[in-house]
């Protein structure tokens, strides 16, 4: 899909040109020419992409690859030129004068390069006529009649008459959708089934369509397969034929329809439906435009008629009927997957020979619960009885599932990718950089997308907001799975289905030259993105003529003693460097050579404790991302103030000398620093972009809380504040906090002094409050419940463990009027929770974690009619048993109830880090002990030999 690559580069050239016009003015005409020709080329790439799937694929593929390569080469040339000029601009006047001839030479050289690139693009453009490549802006009624996509649509065309005998795990879903369709409402309503490609949306719709209750309820039923290449008139004609009476002359109906316009056909269909209770299924609908064209033919005749649509896009479902929640179909669980696999692989006896079970389970794990993949692999293995045959499939599983097949899993998944606009295609391809089977941290994803220039800012929105829109669209298209939500409803982590990830990597290798742990990397192209490769491969990369853009290393077994081997000319355009490798303890000073670096991340598994002074040379650096844990504070020299473009500084930062931070005018996030560094900066008010601040208060700080609050109040757009105290210190809630009117999120970690009886000490617009290890008096809840704007409250080990009044937590009548989210976590003495009348009336989510003494849920939960989610994790078995048996009447109104063990996302990061450190120390002690015993044993053996 070269359209994505060329669109990306064209946008990047515009961006570079607008930001660096001072440097590029001498080659302005050439740069504009390259950009304009690339934009023109986009018009032909859609046709070229479709022809790649046909007979002339090889030659077309070469043509597309040439465009992509020359486009990337243009970006490389201009970026390197800008770096050379910027480097000279930072020098003294004497050096500038001395190097002026070199500047003129650089200008001459880049001008010639751009001239050559422009000539090459024109040659490639002119050659398209030899391949019969046309300008396609969109498919019309008669366009693309012989394309692979159309053939695919014909093969995928659904019909409710074709029964699926091998259905697993659908009964509960069928009943849910049937109940939605039969809900009492005389108006025309639209139910929808959404989910990723291959998950079984059509199969579920068929089961519903043929259900006895549905056949009895609806006098008229029809089934339409829409697809991406829908044609409204053809669809309406097919519908009219389906709803016609059996005794009618179909030939006469067709003759009549052929004489009508689209408006006439719509009127004809409406007349046939106006006096009947009808159900029409619209299978595989992709766009809101398609929906708008089709739906106007259906009359709302007050007969409780229904439409049922299936789509990969949540946006379409919500557009069709915003009042009915789309029914989301999820992947099969392990048991359901195995059952479906047995039906396909062993259709007769449905039993797997014992010697094949382990191989079968391993193969099935790769399918990751996707019914389409299980059907394909199960059918492939049917009739194969030898273990060697199964192992051959096991070894080459990706080629069976993802690599080019005529109409296999790859083609189904490709439909979703092809439907993406170019900017989302680029974003999707970069998802291949993340580890397989691991949740994707959205914060990290956001900054990696931004670092690579994938997000183009507009005047109305800031970059981070645009990124969230992109992310929401990929989720809405069911190309990303949401794993965890934040309390405010934003996505915290997500995951790419394993098969979609394989498809993503396959495409990324073509488009952005992604390589993942590949011992035979070839560098014939101009750039590469590397997820991980061993140390010796870094050295090879360094000697290549390619430009590596991303380097992410996870769980490396190699010991990365220093980074000298990657700080070479081939890495001068490196944008992203993230290392989570246990072998890395020291970052060398050579990192300062990576002048293009925008995102630098360190994972929890590394043992890096110091950032070198040379980090100050990274003038383009926008994000430093380190673990947010006090047990992992990183020593930093007083050089951060030189990073003029730094926008986000995550992690606990320490320094032997006073850190100058008030010069970081672009800084938006300040993870956590000792408070004395903050208090000793005199010009904090000029940090006009600062939105999130974390401060650590230690014993020797002698903190004046009022003065601290006064300095924070000067930051007019500050939204989020975290204050943390160590050891036996207390956070004093003084009146100064109320001056922080812009703060909407407040996190207090450590012991709190007694809260005054009136909540006026809190910021007036406070919406989210988190209290960790607070040792509060239980009656403090009566103060917090008066915070009228509070929508999110998290209480983590907030009360003393042995307090005599902490066994019953009572929320007063009408307490917490605006609360939407409540988490109670590690309230070790709480035996009971009581709610007064009208308390937390708007609550939507309740989380109860590790409250081991809690005996029962509050009976008043039954009155919380807005409660949508109850999450109970790591609670005693007796409590869980009672929850599942005795509280059914209390919980039946809650649509989403989750019970189970907590994931690490719910754990306090510091507690997790502390336990990880203890575990690491234990492991090291065990290894040292084993090594000592082994040495002693060898010594004794040597003595005996002597």
Automatic annotation (TrEMBL):
One of its GO terms (cellular component) is membrane. It is a peripheral membrane protein. It comes from the Eukaryota. Residues 433-503 form the Disease resistance protein winged helix domain. Residues 548-869 form the Disease resistance R13L4/SHOC-2-like LRR domain. Coiled coil: none annotated. It is found in: Membrane. InterPro entries: Apaf_helical, Disease_R_plants, LRR_dom_sf, LRR_R13L4/SHOC2-like, NB-ARC, P-loop_NTPase, RX-like_CC, Rx_N. Keywords: ATP-binding, Coiled coil, Leucine-rich repeat, Membrane, Nucleotide-binding, Plant defense, Repeat. Residues 5-92 form the Disease resistance N-terminal domain. The keyword Coiled coil applies. GO terms for molecular function: ADP binding; ATP binding. Pfam families: LRR_14, NB-ARC, Rx_N, WHD_DRP. Residues 171-349 form the NB-ARC domain. GO terms for biological process: defense response to other organism; defense response to virus. Belongs to the disease resistance NB-LRR family. This is Disease resistance protein At1g50180.
């Amino acid at each position: 899909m070269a359209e994505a690559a060329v669109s990306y580069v064209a946008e990047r050239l515009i961006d570079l040109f607008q930001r660096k016009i001072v440097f590029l003015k001498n080659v302005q005409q050439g740069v504009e020419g390259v950009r304009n020709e690339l934009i023109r080329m986009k018009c032909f790439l859609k046709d070229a992409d479709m022809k790649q799937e046909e007979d002339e694929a090889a030659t077309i593929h070469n043509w597309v690859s040439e465009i992509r390569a020359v486009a990337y080469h243009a970006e490389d040339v201009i970026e390197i030129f800008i770096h050379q000029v910027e480097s000279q601009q930072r020098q003294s006047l004497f050096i500038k004068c001395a190097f002026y001839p070199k500047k003129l030479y650089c200008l001459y050289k880049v001008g010639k390069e751009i001239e050559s690139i422009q000539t090459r693009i024109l040659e490639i453009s002119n050659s398209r006529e030899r391949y019969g490549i046309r300008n396609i802006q969109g498919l019309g009624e008669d366009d693309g009649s012989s394309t692979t996509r159309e053939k695919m649509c014909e093969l995928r065309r659904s019909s409710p008459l074709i029964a699926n005998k091998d259905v697993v795990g659908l009964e509960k879903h069928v009943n849910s959708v049937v109940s939605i369709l039969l809900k009492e409402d005389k108006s025309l309503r639209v139910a929808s089934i959404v989910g990723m490609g291959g998950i079984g949306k059509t199969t579920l719709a068929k089961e519903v369509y043929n259900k006895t209750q549905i056949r009895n309820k609806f006098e008229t039923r029809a089934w339409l397969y829409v697809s991406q290449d829908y044609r409204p008139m053809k669809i309406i004609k097919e519908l009219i034929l389906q709803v016609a009476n059996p005794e009618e002359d179909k030939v006469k109906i067709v003759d009549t329809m052929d004489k009508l316009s689209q408006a006439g056909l719509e009127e004809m269909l409406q007349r046939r439906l106006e006096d009947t209770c009808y159900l029409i299924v619209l299978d595989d609908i992709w766009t809101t435009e398609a929906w708008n064209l089709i739906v106007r033919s259906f009359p709302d005749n007050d007969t409780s008629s229904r439409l049922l649509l299936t789509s990969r896009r949540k946006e379409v479902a919500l557009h069709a009927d915003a009042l009915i929640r789309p029914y989301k179909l999820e992947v099969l669980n392990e048991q359901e997957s195995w059952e479906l696999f047995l039906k396909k692989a062993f259709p007769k006896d449905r039993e797997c020979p014992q010697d094949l079970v382990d191989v079968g389970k391993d193969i099935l794990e790769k399918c990751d619960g996707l019914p389409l993949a299980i059907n394909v692999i199960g059918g492939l293995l049917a009739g194969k009885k030898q273990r060697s045959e199964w192992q051959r499939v096991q070894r080459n599983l990706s080629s069976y599932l993802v690599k080019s097949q005529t109409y296999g899993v790859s083609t189904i998944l490709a439909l979703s990718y092809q439907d993406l606009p170019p900017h989302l295609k680029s974003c999707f391809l970069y998802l291949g950089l993340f580890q397989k089977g691991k949740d994707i941290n959205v914060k990290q994803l956001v900054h990696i997308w931004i670092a690579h220039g994938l997000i183009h800012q507009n005047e109305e929105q800031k970059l981070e907001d645009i990124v969230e829109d992109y992310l929401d669209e990929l989720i809405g298209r069911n190309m990303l799975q949401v794993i965890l939500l934040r309390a405010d409803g934003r996505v915290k982590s997500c995951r790419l289905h394993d098969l979609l990830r394989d498809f993503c990597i396959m495409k990324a290798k073509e488009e952005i030259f992604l390589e993942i742990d590949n011992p035979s990397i070839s560098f014939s192209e101009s750039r590469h993105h590397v997820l991980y490769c061993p140390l010796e491969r870094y050295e090879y990369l360094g000697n290549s003529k390619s430009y590596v853009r991303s380097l992410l290393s996870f769980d490396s077994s190699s010991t990365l003693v220093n980074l000298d081997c990657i700080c070479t000319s081939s890495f001068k355009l490196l944008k992203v460097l993230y290392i989570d490798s246990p072998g890395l303890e020291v970052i060398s000073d050579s990192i300062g050579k990576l002048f293009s670096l925008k995102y630098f991340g360190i994972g929890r598994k590394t043992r890096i404790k110091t950032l070198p002074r040379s980090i100050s040379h990274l003038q383009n650096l926008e994000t430093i991302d380190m673990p947010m844990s006090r047990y992992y504070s990183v020593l930093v020299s007083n050089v951060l103030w030189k990073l003029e473009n730094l926008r986000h500084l995550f992690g606990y930062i320490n320094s032997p000398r006073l850190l100058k931070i008030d010069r970081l005018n672009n800084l938006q996030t300040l993870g956590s620093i000792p408070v004395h560094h903050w208090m000793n900066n005199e010009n904090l008010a000029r940090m006009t972009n600062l939105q999130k601040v974390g401060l650590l208060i230690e014993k020797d700080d002698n903190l004046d809380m009022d003065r601290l609050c006064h300095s924070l109040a000067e930051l007019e757009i500050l939204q989020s504040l975290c204050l943390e105290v160590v050891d036996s210190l207390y956070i004093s809630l003084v009146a100064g906090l109320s001056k922080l009117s812009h703060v909407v999120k407040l996190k207090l970690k450590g012991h709190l002094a007694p809260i005054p009886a009136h909540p006026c000490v809190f910021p007036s617009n406070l919406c989210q409050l988190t209290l960790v290890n607070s040792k509060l008096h239980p009656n403090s809840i009566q103060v917090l419940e008066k915070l009228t704007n509070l929508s999110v409250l998290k209480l983590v080990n907030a009360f003393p463990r042995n307090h005599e009044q902490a066994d019953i937590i009572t929320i007063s009548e009408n307490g917490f009027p605006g609360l939407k989210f409540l988490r109670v976590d590690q309230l070790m003495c709480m035996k009971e929770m009581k709610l007064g009348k009208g308390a937390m009336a708007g609550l939507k989510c309740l989380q109860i974690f590790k409250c081991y003494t809690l005996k029962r849920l509050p009976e008043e939960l039954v009155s919380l009619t807005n409660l949508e989610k109850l999450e109970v994790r790591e609670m005693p078995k007796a409590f869980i048993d009672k929850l599942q048996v005795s509280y059914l009447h209390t919980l039946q109104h809650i649509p989403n109830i989750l019970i189970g063990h907590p994931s690490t996302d719910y754990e306090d990061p510091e507690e997790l880090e502390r336990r990880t450190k203890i575990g690491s120390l234990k492991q090291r002690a065990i290894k040292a002990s084993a090594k000592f015993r082994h040495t002693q044993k060898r010594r004794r053996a040597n003595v005996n030999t002597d």
